[in-house]
Amino acid sequence: MAFKIIVCAKQVPDTNVIKINPKTGTLIRDGVPSILNHDDANALEEALKIKDQYPDTHITVITMGPPQAKDLLMECLAKGADEGILVSDRAVGGSDTWATSNTLEAAVKKVGEFDLIFAGRQAIDGDTAQVGPQLAEKLDIPQVTYVEEFEIDKNMKDITVKRQLEDGYEVIKLQTPCMLTTIKELNSPRYMSMAGIFGAKNKEMKVWNAKDIEVDLTKVGLEASPTNVFRSFTPAPKGKGVTIEGDTDNEVAKKLLINLKGKHVI
Ligand SMILES: Cc1cc2nc3c(=O)[nH]c(=O)nc-3n(C[C@H](O)[C@H](O)[C@H](O)COP(=O)(O)OP(=O)(O)OC[C@H]3O[C@@H](n4cnc5c(N)ncnc54)[C@H](O)[C@@H]3O)c2cc1C
């Protein structure tokens, strides 16, 4: 039986291009291109590497987003995924992370059986790193976050991952079905090939609405989202730094000490 992988991918505004309106503190999205979230490109790449090794692996990419998120799915199909699913409905618009993971949970349950779910660690726009772990909790499967190395045994059951920590790493063994969230150190995402781009048009792309996934409408969308944004703002730029100069290191250190004592830092 084919090994089944689900990749959760989010279409995000390219934050290299995005600007903040200094008056309102909101993102200026007009004319900003949308891209596949960086960590999700690593998630897809790892799934594709498994498929390179075990060709009967089946990769489904799920995204929740507006109709234009189909472009993201086309990109994933062109890279080698087998199937793309867009969950799009006004009812899920305005969802926070809790409501997003409720929607993804319902979509995964409609997909049916799976062995492995990959998600990115973090989306570059929302930046919370909550959706993957929340989804794993809701599906009641084991999860490892911040995966920087991945290995699967040929029994397609035993997985060994190296998980990045702030001051080191952990090596964890677990079994499928499970959820892994990926970081950029894991791999280098491939580019789309010409053949892949043409081939993508013949692959399966499904668009599901809230009714299709039978999601509880009281658990999705803006109204149901427990997160309230009170204010968003751009921190004011800090003043110019102070450069301490002197002829010798000792002199500079002395001046620094006087300075810090003067400010009651030490
Ligand atoms: C009140 C409120 C309203 C909001 N309304 C919207 C809105 O209308 N549209 C909008 O885009 N954002 C909206 N957001 C932001 C929204 O909370 C997040 O974009 C979204 O829930 C994902 O969280 P994140 O970006 O922090 O993802 P993270 O938790 O950082 O993402 C981790 C990983 O989860 C997966 N993932 C995350 N989101 C998706 C997705 N949509 N589809 C598939 N996989 C995903 C990806 O693999 C991603 O790498 C709203 C937030 C609040 C608080």
Write out key terms for the chains shown:
266 residues; alpha/beta; Rossmann fold; nine-stranded mixed sheet; two-stranded antiparallel sheet; 28% helix; 26% strand; globular; binds flavin-adenine dinucleotide
Describe this entry's structure for a reader.
The protein is of the alpha/beta class and 266 residues long. It has a single domain (4-224), classed as HUPs (Rossmann fold). It contains seven helices and 13 strands. The chain has helices at 38-53, 70-79, 97-111, 131-139, 194-200, 221-224, 249-262; strands spanning 4-8, 11-13, 19-20, 27-28, 34-36, 58-64, 83-87, 116-120, 143-152, 158-165, 168-175, 178-182, 204-208. β3 and β4 form a beta hairpin. α2 crosses α5. The termini are far apart. 33% of the residues are buried. Residues 8-10, 37, 39-40, 62-65, 93-97, 100, 104, 119-120, 122-123, 125-132, 222, 225, 227, 229 line the site of flavin-adenine dinucleotide.
Average of per-residue pLDDT values:
94
Strand content: 25-35%
Element order: H for helix, E for strand: EEEEEHEHEHEHEEEEHEHH
As laid out across the biggest beta sheet, the strand order is: 11-10-9-12-8-1-6-7-13
What is Rg?
23 Å
Bound molecules: flavin-adenine dinucleotide
Number of alpha- plus pi-helical segments: 7
User: How many structural domains can be distinguished in the coordinates?
Assistant: 1
Largest sheet: 9 strands, mixed
Number of strands: 13
CATH architecture: 3-Layer(aba) Sandwich
